[in-house]
C-alpha cells in the first residue's frame, strides 16, 4: 500500500515536508479531483470554475470535542471530516468539487494516523467526485482539523431563509443513528455496531441536496448539531414557526434497543441528535417530495416559539453548541 | 465602537451563536467583500467568479507556535493571519477576494480577543478589497486559526516550477525585519520598535505579485519560512540552482542595530528570516524589473546544491519547519 509506513514513526520523524510529500502521494492515488489546473505543492491551487460561482464552507474538528482517537480509527475520522463538509455543499443544493485541509497535530502523532486520516478523507471525497487540492500542517497540543470545501450549485442555492407558511417540512437520510452510536460509545459499549458505524462514518444523502433544489425546496439545512436545533435555524432564518410531528418517524430498531438499554426515549436521539448529516428542507405544500424524502412536519406563521413538537413546546435537548 | 464588549466576558459566556453574531457584525462593518451572493450565516457562502477560475490556499496558525498573546495584540494577530494568506495569492500573481476562518479557542478566551482578532483580520483584508465570507468556531485547548483564501489571477498563475538558467532572482518587499523583531521579542525587548511592528504586522507588497506576473516572472513564491528556504523551493521545483548574492542587499539600519545588540550577523535575519511575506521571483535575464523589485541573484543549471550564497554553501539557518 502506498501509504503504509513504519508504525513507530511520528509526524515529527517525517518532518513537515516529508509528511506533506506522503500526504500528497495518498491524495494523488485516491482522489486528485477534476478541473484542477494547479494542484498541491505551490503557494495556492488553481481551479477551473465552470458555473460562474463557487459555494464555499469551512468546518473545524478538534480532538476530544468532535472525535476521540480511541473511539474511531484515523480512516473513519477522515471520512467523517470530509462528510461533514461535503454535506454543507449538499445543504445548499450544490455538488462539492475541491477541499483543502488545515491540520494541526502534536509532534508525537503517529505519521500513519495522518496518512490513514488522509486516505479516509480522500476516499469520502471520491464518492462525490471531489478532490483534496491543498492544505497546511502545523504542530499543536491536540489534533485540529479545519476543512474548507468548494463546489457549485446546479440551480439556485437553497438558503435557510425561504420557508413560508403552508410549506411542508421534510427529511432525507438517517437521523439519530450517529447520536445513538455516540451514546453507546460514551457508556463504554461497542454495539449495536450499526449505530457505532453510523457515528464513525456518516452516510449523508449527497444526491438529495441538488435533487431537492431542482424539486423547488424553499429552504434547506443539513443536520449537524441536532434536528430541532437545525429546524430552529430554518424557522428563525425564514421568520416562520416549524412544527415537527413525532408520529411521522419510524423509530429504527437499533435505536429502540439502545433506548431500552440506556433507559432513554429513542425519539431523543432523533430529535436532538446530529452528525448523521441528514438534510432538512421545506417544500411548497403541493410539491411531490423527491425520492428519499419523508414529510415530518409543517410550516406555519411566526408564533411564540420558532419550533414546536406535536404542536407544543419541547423540553428535551435540541442540539449541541460548542461553548 | 461596534465591537466593544465587557472585558470580563469569555467566548463561553457569549456562547457559540452569540460569538458568531458579534463576529459577523464586525465583518459587516469592516470588510464585507464584493461579489458575495450569499454571505456568512448559511451552510455555505456563494461567490460570483468572473475569471473562470479560483486560486485557493489554506494556512494554519497555532498559539505558542506562530504567535503569543503576550507578544502581540489580538488585532495584530488578525492582521498577520490575513496577511500571510493574502500573500499566498499574491505569490501566484493573483488578487485575493474572499476568506474563511476556522477558529478553535479555549472557553476562557476573552470574547474581546476574538472580536479584536476579527477586526484586525477584516481590516487587513480590506486593504486589498477582500472580505471574510464564512467560517466556523470550536472549543480547543489553545487558539488555532486556519484561514482559507480565494482569489483570481489577472494573467496566468506564476508557479514555483518555471525558473530557467539565465533568469535573474529578484526580491520585493521588506526582508528580515520580522525575523529581527521576533529575535528582539525573544530576548524580552520591545525595540527597535520598527522591527517589532514589522513582526506584528507584516506589510506584504500586495501589488507586486500581479505586477510581476504581467512583467513575465517565470517563477514566484512568498517568503514565509525564510529566504533561502523559499529559494530552495523555487530551485527544486524548477530543477535549477539559485545563487543569492549578499552584496545585493542594503542591510537596513535597525537590523544592523539588532545584530550588534544580540551579537548576530544581521545578514542571518535577511537570509534565514520569514514572515515579512516579501516576494521572491525569477525573471528572464533581459526583462526590466518592475518597480520595487531588486535583483539579488542568478539562476544557473542544476548543480550539486539547489541554493548557494555568493557561489558557495551556506552554513547558517535557512528557514523554519513546523515539525
TrEMBL record, chains A, B:
Xref: Gene3D superfamilies: PurM-like C-terminal domain (3.90.650.10), PurM-like, N-terminal domain (3.30.1330.10)
Can you tell me which residues bind Mg(2+) 4? 43, 57, 88
Q: Which residues bind ATP?
A: 135-136, 160, 224
Task: Output one GO MF annotation.
Answer: thiamine-phosphate kinase activity
| Top-level enzyme category | transferase
What pathway is it annotated to?
Answer: Cofactor biosynthesis; thiamine diphosphate biosynthesis; thiamine diphosphate from thiamine phosphate: step 1/1
Write out the residues that bind substrate: 66, 275, 320
Q: What else is known?
A: Reaction mechanism of ThiL seems to utilize a direct, inline transfer of the gamma-phosphate of ATP to TMP rather than a phosphorylated enzyme intermediate.
Identification of the protein by name: Thiamine-monophosphate kinase
Organism for this UniProt entry: Nocardioides simplex (Arthrobacter simplex)
Q: Provide the gene name from the record.
A: thiL
